[in-house]
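Researcher: We're reviewing a set of sequences before deciding which ones to prioritize for further study. For each one, I'd like a predicted 3D structure that I can look through quickly. This is Esterase family protein. If possible, include the structure in token form so it fits the rest of the review sheet.
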Amino acid sequence: MKYAIKIMTVIGLVSAGANASEVAHYKFDSEVLGAPYPYTLYTPDGFGESDKRYPVMYLLHGSFGSENDWASRGSLQETADALIAQGKIPPALIVMPGNQSWWVDGNNEPAATAFIEDLLPHIESTWPAIREREGRVIGGLSAGGYGTINFVFQHPDLFVAGAALSPAIYASLPPEHSSAWRHPAYLDEEENFSEERWKELNYPSYIDDYMAGEEVVPLYINSGDHDTFDIAYHATMLYQALREHQPNQVELRIVDGDHEWNVWKDTLPEAMEYVFSFASRPLGALPE
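Model: Here's the predicted structure for Esterase family protein, in token form for your review sheet.
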């Protein structure tokens, strides 16, 4: 390779062949977290012989999940391989980070700040990633879909498109059986759920500033029609608000299914096609 790879700890590796795509696990020291930041990385077929810079998708896991979920349960590698082979998405890097705080600066860790200030610069200085907005897309499931919406609304200058699969974006409070009620991100010192903290960190706190800004981020939103958390309803509410703001740059899909991996695996191809349709193709030769 013609670029320098920073020293990091490799904690696992899955490969489909000597010159095929790979899924590997890494971590680096996060200054914001004061702890290692783990992530799983998909690299496309031919990556090791390429001198190009690639678009990057940041793909977020759900509540109490990990950086391994999309690769181990979501058929990420097989899906990306097929879409690239069919020419439906460009060869790309797919970063699947880990976090413990619903992708917010919650009461247990500053996950949102670490994502923006540590992870993005680390990826773009360590791997041959396109470093401009046109090279970054983001997506996630459930709490990761919630994180996707928040990141897009707070940082529309950083992402060219987003995909929120069954996003846990309850406009008021989460339903009683949502894991948000017991998640450390929202628990106060007495370990009680903080309604104030939830409302402070949820997307209604950011949507007005997003709509008042100049940057528009195309969004794909979906939900299962039998979602136990009524996310079809909340997703439709968000879609309607965005449809008035960006009528030709938001899509909603209500599909058959519950809040489950079958929904997320089945809709990941369409979500990836959507976000990458707005992204840059791999670029030029890397600087020496």
